[in-house]
Specification:
10 strands, 2 domains, alpha+beta, Mago nashi protein, 8-stranded antiparallel beta sheet, about 190 residues
Amino acid sequence: MQRARILHTDYDATRTSPAQRTPRFYFLKKDKIMNSRIMLALTGFLAAPLAFSAPQALITKTNGTGFTLPEYTRFESCEVFMNKVVVTQRFGYPDQLGFTKREVRPITLDASIRKVIETAQSEDVTKDDNFLCDAPSTTVQFSGNPEPLTLFSSGGCGSPRLDREGPASQMLKELVNQYCPVTYDFGRRP
């Protein structure tokens, strides 16, 4: 194997002190094998985070109690994956007075859930005013392409209440509600 050889070293003349000067190395261009190996290693290094990244949740539901005293503060999230549900509950503020409980429940969803998600993407979203501020809130999102889409949001402080309506959306909401049944909704009721 032929190693890259330094043809010559040059210093950046714009730097005044020798400590600031950085050497620039010029390599022979005929070392194509070395260059291809470097490119292969660089490509692998950049692609590794994509290969080992955590899978994206199919459905995510979050609940928060809104503005309240620390001892009454609660936060809950449910993340539904193809093979598990992750339920995280926070009581108080863990950095002050509080703790977090995390539970992983194994489940099995078949591949037809992807068809339900695809159908839900095209269902209509209704918007209603919600002028409550600092109230408890719920947000339910599902994996969209390329970003998550809203199934439901209680809104508040001028943000509208959003509700995706249709049979596929209803199925997805019912699935996540099996693991996190609380939904804060101060708007329109069907």
